[in-house]
# Entry
Amino acid sequence: MNNKVMNDKKVLVIPCSGIGKPIGTVSRETAYKIVENLRKEKCQTICLALLTSGDKETIDKVKKNYCITIDGCAKHCAKKNVEACNKTPDKSYMILKFAAANPDKKPEGIIDIGNGGRKLVNTIASQIAKDIDKLTKNKVEVSVNERK
# Structure
């Protein structure tokens, strides 16, 4: 029996832009760590500005894939922009909650988040990587003979 994986969905890791705030830098650095190092075969990121501006290709990508949002503050920009596409994020994270739970891992600056910020990025990225694994392990195999 010849089987083929029918679910080729990626996981979009969508961070807030958080320009000018250390917590925003943590959000972006977390997304980059996941996409470039931890789960590069399973996920990618998108430009939040393209989503915000209504770019059709970006919206289609959001609608067709799993989405994990990473927000720095209570404004939830990443999450709200995914929801504006009539899509509920599969998982949403708030960097401030991780920061509060890990006071020893504090970002130091905007350009360079320092050792504490990098430790916070690693903590958050590890958790998100586990969620990516859970989302992507639910791939359904369908027999080629069963397809119509």
